[in-house]
Amino acid sequence: MAEAQGIRSLLVIGGARSGKSRYAQMAAERSGKKPVLIATGEAKDAEMAARIAAHQAERGSHWCTIEAPLALGDALKAAAAPSTIVLVDCLTLWLSNLMLAGGDAAAEGQHLADVIATLAGPVIFVSNEVGSGIVPDNILARRFQDAQGRLNQTIAAACDSVVLVAAGLPLTLKPSAHSASIL
To answer: Does the keyword field hold Transferase (predicted)?
Structure first.
């Protein structure tokens, strides 16, 4: 992550098992700053507990971990500092937690976007791209897909840089040399 080039916020999006978390982790570790993970997932079953344990083992003990399944904006404000780089993994689980708790996804997403500009240090967000598949067959899944797409757009607009990871390969979407407006 090139803070010297003005990039203080990065959104890494991609499908399931695309390599987005690995890309984000490597970017954080290359920054030279103290890495802080804000984990939004909760171990509500054995399979999720195993996933969390595997991610912890991959990161290593030099990472500081903060669990924030819902209060993401507050956790970001507390963790961000000039000497740290914060990795939020992931917005998809945070949104799921928020929707299951009855929260207002649009308002909370905008609040999170507003927080990004106030942070004292760099941040990397990881989020799933869920709009590239079929339209779900039930209302809850359609509501989630819509909310995830809107959240990704909101956070992408607030971040300095956006990278799409597919099959482990990063593609920079923002900033782009081709970002001239189309009239």
So the answer is: yes
